[in-house]
Amino acid sequence: MIVSAIKTGEFGGLVPQANAAVLRIWDPIDEREPLGSLGWGDSLGLAFWDMDASALGVRGRLVARLWGRNRALFESLAGRLFGNDIPWRPFIAADAADIAAFADGLAAKGVTELLVVCRNGRGRSGTVGRWIARRLGTRFQTTGDDRDSGYIRETLDRVGGLAQTAVSAAA
């Protein structure tokens, strides 16, 4: 299997393939197009900002750490604490759990390529893509930008674990 991080603009011109999966990361203010019925082998869509722990502040880190495993509760509390005028949405534990479960199911679905897509194809998608490649023991195709979002990686490690899972030899 090959895991690649790509930009939204590059993704728009691709033809869906049954042996490829898409993990689409939107900005919280983006309009979200459906992925599941487009012909990809599998898909997961999430929306969060590319921010690190320092951007969250003390209250934000506390809310994310204590209630981040429950997306609905987290978003309700965050709205009350920070307002709803700007979608305040960092990466949370629920996102990490969804990503880990998604990655672990790819080999059984015959997926040989995973595209991790975000606006710039670097911070969020690069960090998530490298983490998935490490988890699956497969290759990460880089765009040359090794930018790492430490907060996202640390949350993935904490929730999804550091252990590598095996992929099929055919992949």
Estimated share of beta-strand residues: 15-25%
**Class of secondary structure makeup:** alpha/beta
What percent of the residues sit in helical stretches (DSSP H or I)? 40-55%
Report the total helices: 6
Strand segment count: 5
Q: Your description of this structure?
A:
The chain is built from 6 helices and 5 strands. The protein is 40% helix and 16% strand. It has one domain (2-160): Alpha-Beta Complex (Protein-Tyrosine Phosphatase, Chain A). It has a 5-stranded parallel sheet. The mean pLDDT is 85. The chain has 171 residues and is of the alpha/beta class.
SSE layout and pairings?
Elements: E1 2-7, H1 8-11, E2 20-26, E3 42-47, H2 53-67, H3 71-82, H4 93-105, E4 113-118, H5 123-136, E5 139-141, H6 150-160
Parallel strand pairs: 1-4, 1-5, 2-3, 2-4
Helix pairs in contact: 2-3, 4-5, 4-6, 5-6
Short description:
It is built from 6 helices and 5 strands. The protein is α/β, with parallel strands linked by helices and 171 residues long.
